[in-house]
Amino acid sequence: MRFRQIHLDFHNDKHVQIGTQFSKKQFQDMLRLGNVDSITIFAKCFHGWAYYDTQKFAKHPGLSFDLLAEMIDAAHEIGVKTPVYLNVGLDEQLARRHPEWLRRDENDRITSEAGFREPGLHVFCFHSPYLEYMTQHIEEVAADYDADGIFLDIVYPKTCYCHYCRSTLLAEGKDPYDKQAAEEMAEQVYARYTAQINERVRAIKPDMPVYHNSGIRFGRRDMAAMNSHLEVECLPSGGWGYDFFPMSARYLQQIEEKIVGMTGRFHKNWGDFGNYKHPNALRFEAALSLAHGTRCSVGDHLHPDGLMDPIVYRSVGAAYQEVEAKEPWCTDVRNVADVAILAVESLSPAEERKGRSDIGAYRILQEGNILYDFIDTDSDFTAYKVIVLPDRVRITAKLAAKLDTYFKSGGKVLATGESGLNEAGYAFAIDLGATWLGANPFQPDYFRPHFATRSLGEGSFVFYAPGQKVELAEGGVELGFREDSYFNRSASAYYYTHTPNCRNNAGPGMIQSANGIYYAWNAFYDYGENASLFIKETILHALDLLLGSSRTLQTSFPAQGTVTLQHQPHESRYVNHLLYACPVKRGRNLEIIEDMTPIYDVDLTLQVPEPVKRVYLAPTMEDLPFTQDGGAIRYRVPVVECHQMVVIDYIL
After folding, report:
1. What is the C-alpha to C-alpha distance for residues 432 and 77, in angstroms, rounded to an integer?
2. How far is CA 123 from CA 92, 137, 159, 160, 582, in A?
3. How far apart are CA 58 and CA 130, in angstroms?
4. Measuring CA to CA, which residue among 161, 532, 216 is closest to residue 367?
5. How many other C-beta atoms can be found within 10 angstroms of the C-beta atom of residue 400?
6. What pLDDT digit, counting tens, does each position of 58-89 carry?
7. Is-contact 31 78, C-beta < 8 A?
8. Angle at Cα 261 formed by Cα 255 and Cα 263, nearest 5°?
9. Disulfide engineering: 62 pairs with which of 17, 267, 464, 603, CB 3.0-4.6 Å?
10. Are 134 and 54 within 8 A, CB to CB?
């Protein structure tokens, strides 16, 4: 799989002339300028138009030649691969001819952004004849064109109440308006769709990569397995933000080796013509992909006339020149992690995607320079020294059994809030040195730790999120206690923001035991929502207690930095990635990267089991002085400007 990819969108209304300025030379010149080695090009857009000489389907009325063939030939001539894009979930010209194939809600209304009298998109049901229509469309492209893969967009399990779905459920003796039955049907329809497409494409070309762009949630290993590889679509300024990609990669890298991190060149979102993000943002986002063990892809949108935009490919080229130089240290890598976050999102399909508890856990560990993964209940717990159970991880029988084995092997947990309670929520299902008494009636309330926080020292600190009342059980040691508010805010008694603490001892707030540490509030949600400094510092204190001297990496790198450690076993080396950029909020709610601030003299200590023979900067190959005391390797990085890799070669 190539490292330097472009994902080239092309969605056009029927009233526009297409490809009038397309030039093979200009197309190739821009790919060379962008240092691109793979470009996903288009066969069918969401308007439903084909951009090739189709025998069965609707070619764009403003296109007079086979644009797909021209682009494939031009790219292949200069050694650039060409996966081909088809929009599967949307087809606006077909929606007007076959509205009976569209997805419908429980009131039999077409699900869409708007009605047919307004601009908007309409989603198809794959349980209708539309599936066979699209399968033949994909087959035609796979058979007639030298594509290097198939990329299928706007696909995911869709609850639907159209007459096809209702009829099937009725025939099975089920209530077609039962939510659970409809959700189960959606999963079956999606699985059947992926199986049919994969089978029919590979009957034509057995080795053809096929990717269904569904956005894999935590816990959906089954959906990941439906693909030949994975692509993480994440335009930080397009609504995803800068949290989404690292969180996704830290889960997906465990279950798939071939992953692409897809960002975009747009200032805002897809199809943002004539507006561009700063080139430094593309440099950082490409480096972020490398640091998380994935390939790089930048989304673009071709102008209807077929001319590639030089502004885009100059910016991409600057970023991809750096990527090309770093590729040898980024292939076949495995992430090194001390801590695993059991994602709340993975526990139920109804959970919010990248919810505040998961985001808060990710941010604290990243800001604390702790090496981490996200996991689900099928992951290998024994690969980690500590497992974080954020806020709402109720303990099922399956999870209890896995944790029992994990505890016996010496593993520890950090549980917060409701985590650790049984499924019914009335008692702890694992031994955390605590007895559950009930939900705490005061909100907010306060925590007074028995230790000084790093930045603020000793004191009482407010929790906005709800907490649990607990008492010490056998083996539990109190690390801090709760203080109640004088009263809960009401119309008859209130302060401007919230009620102060009454300085009482209302019972333990943090407890350490043989199995780990329990923290009685939804601390990660609170940090994800409010970013209170004391929460981060008390969580990091707890993790320091649990990890002790076994922590793999410690560094002076500041909290806005990103640190990862990738292992390249076939090369007998570790690669330590350090990235630094500060996204800022501009406009109404856009995260922007513009300036690159260098960070000087970063100290790192790395615990590795192998004897180290060399430490150097890549790709410059500059040697770094280092010391090794037992398993501890110490070195200093003179400067980090955007992204720096440190390579640790060891002796087998």
Report:
1. 63
2. 9, 17, 11, 10, 38
3. 14
4. 532
5. 14
6. 999 999 999 999 999 999 999 999 999 999 99
7. yes
8. 155
9. 17
10. no
The reported pLDDT for the residue numbered 83 is 98
Query: Would you state the pLDDT for residue 544?
Result: 98
Q: Give the chain's length.
A: 652
Written as one letter, the residue type at 42 is: F
Query: What pLDDT, on a 0 to 100 scale, did the predictor assign at position 195?
Result: 98
Check if the beta carbon of residue 335 is closer than 8 Å to that of residue 373: yes
Residue 582's SS3 state is: coil
Supply the Cα-derived Rg of the chain in whole angstroms. Answer: 27
Q: What is the pLDDT of residues 390-448, one digit of tens each?
A: 999 999 999 999 999 999 999 999 999 999 999 999 999 999 999 999 999 999 999 99
CB 178: neighbour CB atoms within 10 A? Answer: 12
Beta-strand (E) ranges in 112-220?
150-153, 210-212
Q: How far apart are CA 514 and CA 419, in angstroms?
A: 17
Look at residue 588 in the predicted model and tell me its pLDDT: 85
H helix or E strand, kind and range, residue 435: strand 434-439
Q: Quote the tokens at residue 550.
A: 């076994």
Coil, helix or strand for 21?
A: coil
CA distance 167 to 173: 10
Q: How high is the pLDDT of residue 345?
A: 96
> CA 364 to CA 151: how far, in whole Å?
35
Question: Which residues fall within 8 angstroms of residue 214, CB to CB, at 6 or more apart?
Answer: 155, 156, 157, 190, 223
CA distance 69 to 198: 23
Distance (Å, whole) CA 642 – CA 648 = 20
What is the distance between the alpha carbons of residues 510 and 449, in angstroms, rounded to a whole number? Answer: 8
Query: How many CB atoms neighbour CB 26 within 10 A?
Result: 15
Give the pLDDT confidence score for residue 113 in this predicted structure.
67
Amino acid 207 reads D
Alpha carbon distance 141, 132 (integer Å): 14
At a CB cut-off of 8 Å and minimum separation 6, what does 612 contact? 626, 628, 633, 648, 649, 650, 651
Question: How far apart, in whole angstroms, are the C-alpha atoms of residue 190 and residue 184?
Answer: 10
Q: Which residues pair with 392 in a beta bridge?
A: none
Round to the nearest angstrom and report the end-to-end CA distance of the chain: 28
The burial class, CB within 10 Å (0-12 / 13-18 / 19+), for 547 is middle
Tokens of 530: 């409010």
Tokens of 2: 């190539």
371 touches 338 (CB < 8 A) = yes
**441 preceded by a cis bond (ω within 30 of 0):** no
Q: Which letter does DSSP use for residue 616 in this model?
A: E
- What is the dihedral angle through the alpha carbons of 178, 183, 189, 193, rounded to the nearest 10 degrees? 160
What residue has token string 């209302």? Answer: 506
Label residue 398 left, alpha or beta by phi (over 0 means left) and psi (-120 to 50 means alpha): alpha
H-only helix segments in 424-564: 523-530, 533-547
Left if phi > 0, otherwise alpha if psi is -120 to 50, otherwise beta: which for 611?
beta
Backbone angles phi, psi at 490, to 5 degrees: -150, 175
CA distance 518 to 413: 8
The SS3 call for residue 447 is: strand
- Write the burial class of residue 199 (CB in 10 Å: 0-12 exposed, 13-18 middle, 19+ buried): exposed
Global pTM reads: 0.96
Instruction: Report the alpha-carbon distance of residue 11 to residue 317 in Å, rounded.
Output: 24
Q: How would you classify the pairing of strands 553-555 and 590-592?
A: unpaired
Low-confidence ranges of the chain (pLDDT < 50): none
Backbone φ and ψ for 77, nearest 5 degrees, come out as -60, -30
